[in-house]
Every structure is written in C-alpha cells, then in structure tokens.
Amino acid sequence: MDASYACHPRFLPPYRSTRYHLKEYGGRNYPTNKKELFNLRHSSLRVTVERAFRALKNRFRILDNKPYHPFKTQVKLVLACCILHNWIICHGQDEVFPDEATWEPNSSSTGPGHGNETDNVAWINRRDEIANQMWNNRGTSCLELVVFCVQ
User: Fold this and answer.
1) What is the pLDDT of residue 76?
2) What is the extent of the structural domain holding 106?
3) Buried b (16+ CB within 10 A) or exposed e, 110-126
4) What three-state secondary structure class fits 8?
5) Residue 145: what pLDDT?
6) Cα(107)–Cα(137) distance, rounded to whole angstroms?
7) Which of 53, 109, 111, 46 is closest to 81 using CA atoms?
8) How many domains does the chain have?
9) How far apart are CA 148 and CA 36, in angstroms?
C-alpha cells in the first residue's frame, strides 16, 4: 500500500491508519474528515491510473517488460506510448509505425539516479494543505489531487 512510503516531491501517499479503499466508502459510508476525503480521492485516482496503465501495457508490450532504460527514457517511453495510443484511437493503425514486436530495447542497464534527500516534513505539510483544501471544497473532483501534486 502507498501509505508505507514517505512524502516527497511528486509523491503524496495516503494517510496511515485512515480508511483508504473505495469499498470502505460504499453505501452511506461517506468520508467524515479531511484525511478520509483525501484518501478516498487518492484511491479513486489510483484506480484510474492503474486502469490506464493496464490498457497501455496491453497495447505496448515494451511497457510490460523489465525496464532496461534510464528513468528519463522510461518517462519518455510512457509519454510516446500515450501519444501513439491516442493517435491509433483517432486515426487507426498507421503503416509508418513499425510493429512493436520488432522493437529492440536499448542496451543501457543504468537505473534511475537518486537525487538529494528531500524534506519529508515539508511534503507532509503539503499533503495536509491539500487535504484541508479538499475538505473545504468537497464538491470538486478527484482531479484536484493531480493538479496539486504537479504544482
């Protein structure tokens, strides 16, 4: 579960010891505080992102294999696959793009670099700030979480 990870730039885990999974909010079991609301929206967003990655992995097998590329290249691969996916949906398969089965991975085996340690307390405070704003504006969508995380 994401709650076992620490807060850091571009990753805000759900609150620990607080309801998280969508099934825990079924029926009339609504969030009762800002932490539960944050966790509910976090869980909803996570399910959506996982569903999108499943669709991409089904179409582009390069994403389903062990990554042999540097982290920056992996990010570019995902972006390229999203662009190609949208192109195929809008325009159909294109003869210009080779069949993915013929693609070959780069020979580089370097993994992602580890930067400087960040101040986890600052990101815990940022998560609290987002949770407060969500609680005060309960009518907004879970996409609000994405907007706050990328700022």
Assistant:
1) 93
2) 2-150
3) eeeeeeeeeeeeebbeb
4) strand
5) 54
6) 49
7) 53
8) 1
9) 17
